[in-house]
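YM 10:42: Hsp20 family protein sequence, as discussed on the call
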Amino acid sequence: MRTFDLTPLYRSAIGFDRLANMIDSANRNEQQPSYPPYNIELLGENAYRITMAIAGFSKSELEIQSEEGNLTIKGAKEADTTERTYLYQGIAARNFERRFQLADHVKVVKATIENGLLHVDLVREIPEAMKPRQIEITD
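YM 10:58: structure's back
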């Protein structure tokens, strides 16, 4: 696995210590789960979508929770009591839990399932008090 030196980021960015620490800790964590596969898309300036391949999972077997800047997506398959003999089993039907850390002011808007893909739409809503504003210069 590659290692990245984040020292220049710490030196030149003010107030991004948390971001640099997150990148650094993610870089160190080599046991990242790879199931289920997912994409993160940028849909607009402040709109994002997480698309996760969840073939074989029904709506009732999924749980999506957003709490304090963390998004957790869990899939729990019900126990299959049917006796089966597989010649080849390539479709994973195991439980999973994926966690995503959301940036400030990002919230989950909706979640949909389409063609075996779970789509979770997110939007960043910056409060008016935090948006840039023009300051008038007085005499």
